[in-house]
Structures are given as C-alpha cells and as structure tokens.
C-alpha cells in the first residue's frame, strides 16, 4: 500500500510538471493539434523509455546497475529544462494573480486572470533550451572530454633533489560506467603524454564490483611513470553499495580488487607510506583507506599511515575524500605538505570560467570540491575525476588529468590556481 501510494504521488507530481510546462508551449505556439502531438509525443516517449529502464535494471544493484546511468541521463534531460521553464511560468502567474487582485479590489477594468504573455513563454523556452543543450552535450561528449590541468606548487621545505618533480594525479575512474574503448584509450594516451615522474591514483577504481575493471585492464596497464604508480581505495571500492550473497562473496570481491590493483602495476597504500629517494634526498608518500566526514566508511587511519615519519619529512598524502583534510590532516602534528583527493566529481555539473566563476551544487556539501586549497600552510588538491557515475555525462565539469609540478621555494606573488 505504501509503495502504491508513493508511486501514485510521484506520477501525479511528474504529471503536473509536464502539464504546467506545456502551458508555455501552448502560449508560444498555440494549442494546435501539431503542438499537442509534438509535445506529448516526445514527452510520453521519454516517460515510456524511463518505465522500460526501471522495469529492466537490477534493483539490488540500484544506481550501480549499468542501465541506471541511462535512466539518470534520460530523467535529467526530461526534468531539468522543464523545472527551469516552470520557474519562469510560476513567476508570471504570481504577477497575473496580483494584477487580477488589484483590478478586483479597485473595481478597474481588466480580467481577474490576465492571459499569459507570449513573450514570457518564448523567453522561458529559450532559457530552458540552454540546460537541455548542455545536458545533451554532457551525455554525448562531456563525459569523455578529458582536460589536463597543470599547476605549479611551491614548498620552502621541498628537498632539493625533488625540485621540479612532476606528478600526474587521476581519481575516480569508475570503470563500471565506461562504454567507449576508443575514448578510454585516448584518455590513457593523454595521461602518458604528460611524461610525469610519478603517477598517483586517489581511489574509486570501480563502482562496486572488481569485475568491472577487467574489460579495461589492457588499457590501464599501459600507464607509465618512472618513479612508480601508487594508489588508494575510494568509498566505492569496498563494494558497500550492492547486496552480496554472503560475507565471503564480498570478501572475495575485495581480494580480487587488491589483485587487480597489483596487476595494473599500482602499489596500493592501505594506511601506510613509502619512502621515495632521488639524488640523495627523500620524501614520504602516504596513503590512507577511505575516511569521510559523513556516514561513509571510515577505515582511514592517519596515525598508522604516518607512524614512522620524522618531523622533518616532506610528506604527500593520498586520501580519497577531501573532508579528511579539514577534519584530521590540517591539525595533525606531522606536517603533511600536500594532500591529494578526489571523490566529489564536481558533481559532474557546474560552471567554471577561469579567473571569474567556479560553481557546482556540490560545494554546499563539500566546501573544498575541486582544484587547489590551502589552510595553515598545508595544501590540498581535489581532482574532478577521470570517470563518471550514475549520470552518464558531465556538464561544465570535465573529466580531469592533473599535472602538479613541485618547486622548492616560496610561492611567487603572481602564482595562483585558475581552477
């Protein structure tokens, strides 16, 4: 009964959105048979497609079922432009009501409920077309629109032999979402083309199951870095978001994921660190398991990861969730000069214009959600992610390959991060 009630309320709500949005179309183009057939034909066809998807995907897997991404994409494409459209209509209807009320109270001539103005509906439709085009582009092109972001970071205590060290960071691969081998091959080639000394991966190799990576092993094995490839786990790597037939099956999946990381050539850091040597100097590379400020897994153990470090050691920390930086890293007694994170994906939706605007809805959940941040002399870089999850696209927040060059010395006054 409760399920039936929820479905009924959802259908009523979605039906009202569609009916209300149609008012703008009717005002702009007239209530002709052609208008009705085109609008309701397209809208009805999309709803039918969504119903077929809902009936087809595995409910136990939920958002991690391969079909769910197409459901999320279709629903976003169907609803977001209409919601933007009806905001304009609602504003006009409030003004119509106030105007009619004034006419009624004052006794002046004029209809109590004035007709909608065609120009307002046309403007609303024009505004709704912008996110529609953006979402369509994000699904068609944006999810594989890899962008290389280069940033020079300055540290007074960086050992001299590591002056000029180049690090490529990737994060949030989410291999279970991939569906285009040519684009993935291009992304891998782009990573290798950076010719960095060190390759660091900050978690979420899969959506939930280790087997998701197996079709893509050949491509990711091609990743190269002379000083090594290191990785950590992200919240999705633990398989916590799907139902397993037994605890043993979940553990077997975890063991397979560890094996895949090794087969790819990654040194997986699980609350531990490595000493990297170069020209007689050394730095420490530490990595923790996932630690999130919210209700997500907290297996990360910073104390264990840093336990054998000397106070003077220059340290780079890999921690999947950027909330870890504020809650534990910033105030830790051991100086952690640079933390690399991912996790947020920039919500795969937002607006970024270098030097002018940087916004995504995810900022209200994660204040440090993309790019470079600094607190108490310690730096955090949050990668926007290599892959995508649930929504099969990216709108304004493109998949990222980060190249960080570490320099010894104070930051020039002119040095700044544009993203």
What would you say this structure looks like, in words?
- This protein has helices at residues 2-29, 33-56, 68-106, 118-140, 181-193, 217-220, 247-263, 302-305, 323-329; strands at 147-155, 165-170, 198-201, 229-231, 267-268, 272-278, 281-287, 315-318, 338-341, 351-353, 357-359, 371-375, 378-382, 400-408.
- It is of the alpha/beta class and 419 residues long.
- The chain folds into two domains: 2-140, no CATH class; 147-408, Purple Acid Phosphatase, chain A, domain 2, CATH 3.60.21.
- The strands form three sheets. A six-stranded mixed beta sheet has the order 1-14-2-3-4-5, covered by helices on one side. A six-stranded mixed beta sheet has the order 6-7-8-9-13-12. Strands 10-11 form a two-stranded antiparallel ribbon.
- Helix 3 (68-106) packs antiparallel against helix 4.
- The longest helix is centred in the first third of the chain and has 39 residues, at 68-106.
- The chain is elongated, with a radius of gyration of 26 Å.
- It starts with a helix and ends in an 11-residue tail after the last strand.
Question: Any descriptors?
Answer:
single chain, 419 residues, alpha/beta, 2 domains, six-stranded mixed sheet, 9 helices, 14 strands, 17% strand
Main sheet: strand order: 1-14-2-3-4-5
Strand content: 15-25%
Indicate the structural class: alpha/beta
Number of separate domains: 2
What is the CATH level 1 assignment of the largest domain?
Alpha Beta
Shape: elongated
Oligomer: single chain
Range of helix content? 25-40%
| Rg measurement, Å | 26 Å
Q: Given the structure, what is the number of helices?
A: 9
Can you count the beta strands?
14
Largest sheet: 6 strands, mixed
Question: Residue-averaged pLDDT, rounded?
Answer: 90
- What is the CATH topology of the largest domain? Purple Acid Phosphatase, chain A, domain 2
CATH architecture of the largest domain: 4-Layer Sandwich
In angstroms, what separates the terminal alpha carbons?
50 Å
Order of helices and strands: HHHHEEHEHEHEEEHEHEEEEEE
Uncertain segments: none
């Amino acid at each position: 009964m409760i399920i039936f009630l929820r479905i009924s309320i959802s259908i009523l709500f979605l039906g009202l959105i569609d009916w209300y949005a149609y008012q703008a179309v009717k005002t702009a183009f007239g209530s002709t048979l052609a208008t009705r057939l085109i609008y309701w034909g397209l809208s009805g066809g999309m709803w039918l497609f969504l119903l077929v998807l809902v009936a087809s995907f595995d409910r136990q897997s939920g958002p991690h079922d391969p079909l769910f991404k197409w459901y999320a994409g279709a629903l976003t494409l169907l609803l977001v432009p209409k919601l933007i459209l009806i905001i304009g209509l609602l504003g006009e209807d409030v003004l119509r009501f106030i105007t009619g009320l004034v006419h009624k109270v004052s006794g002046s001539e004029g209809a109590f409920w004035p007709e909608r103005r065609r120009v307002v509906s046309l403007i609303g439709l024009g505004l709704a077309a912008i996110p529609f085009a953006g979402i369509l582009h994000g699904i068609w092109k944006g999810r594989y629109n890899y962008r290389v972001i280069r940033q020079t970071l300055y540290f007074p205590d960086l050992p001299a032999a590591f002056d000029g060290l180049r690090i490529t960071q990737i994060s949030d691969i989410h291999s279970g979402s991939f569906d285009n081998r040519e684009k993935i091959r291009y992304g891998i080639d782009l990573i290798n083309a950076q010719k960095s000394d060190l390759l660091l991966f900050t978690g979420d190799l899969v959506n939930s199951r280790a087997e998701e990576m197996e079709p893509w092993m050949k491509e990711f094995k091609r990743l190269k870095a002379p000083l090594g490839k290191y990785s950590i786990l992200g919240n999705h790597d633990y398989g916590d978001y799907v139902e397993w037939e037994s605890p043993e099956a979940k553990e077997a999946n975890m063991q397979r994921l560890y094996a895949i990381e090794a087969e790819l050539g990654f040194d997986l850091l699980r609350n531990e660190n490595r000493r990297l040597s170069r020209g007689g100097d050394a730095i420490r590379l530490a990595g923790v398991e996932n630690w999130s400020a919210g209700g997500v897994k907290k297996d990360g153990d910073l104390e264990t990861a840093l336990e054998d470090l000397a106070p003077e050691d220059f340290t780079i920390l890999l921690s999947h969730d950027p909330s870890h930086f504020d809650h534990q890293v910033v105030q830790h007694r051991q100086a952690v000069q640079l933390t690399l994170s991912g996790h947020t994906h920039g919500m795969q939706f937002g607006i970024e214009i270098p030097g002018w605007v940087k916004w995504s809805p995810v900022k209200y959940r994660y204040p440090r959600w993309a790019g470079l941040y600094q607190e108490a002399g310690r730096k955090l870089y949050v990668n926007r992610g290599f892959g995508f999850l649930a929504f099969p696209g990216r709108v304004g927040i493109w998949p990222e390959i980060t190249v960080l060059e570490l320099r010894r010395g104070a930051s020039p006054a002119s040095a700044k991060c544009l993203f």
